[in-house]
Amino acid sequence: MSSAMKAHPLRRTALTCAATVTVTVLALALKPHSTTATAAPSGSAPSGDSSSGSSGVSSGGSGSSGGSTSGTRTVTGDTVQTRYGPVQVELTLSGSKITAARAVQSPGDDPRSRQINAAAVPTLVQETLSAQSARIDTVSGATFTSEGYISSLQSALDQAHG
User: Fold this and answer.
1) How many Å apart are CA 107 and CA 32, to the nearest integer?
2) How confident is the model at residue 104 (pLDDT cuts 50, 70, 90)?
3) What is the pTM of this model?
């Protein structure tokens, strides 16, 4: 009976180790892999969808001349490469006031990214319109997209103001 009692702790230890290894392997397998594909501007509303293309370079500012601060103009920020794909912001300004913002590009190569960005991008746009600057909070669960959005937003604001 004494040897049977000793076998159980060893069996339990072996099962615990096997379960730990299995869970670790599964957790690592679920981690999304980064892609190197770039996306072209999709022209869609801030739904977070983007289409594949060969353009990874920002189009710079568009609209009226660079130093102008009067009238309505549109500027496009730099394309920022994030872990999950490119992010690019386009702003419409009237004078120095941001009247509209949209994500021209956002990560959307996989269904999970599309789902996250469908909720995150409208929140980022609303915060941009409220703050009238790039000093906005990141969206929980969409940190990489938020940081890319804020960088592209700052780039667009820099182009608009100077």
Assistant:
1) 12
2) very high
3) 0.59
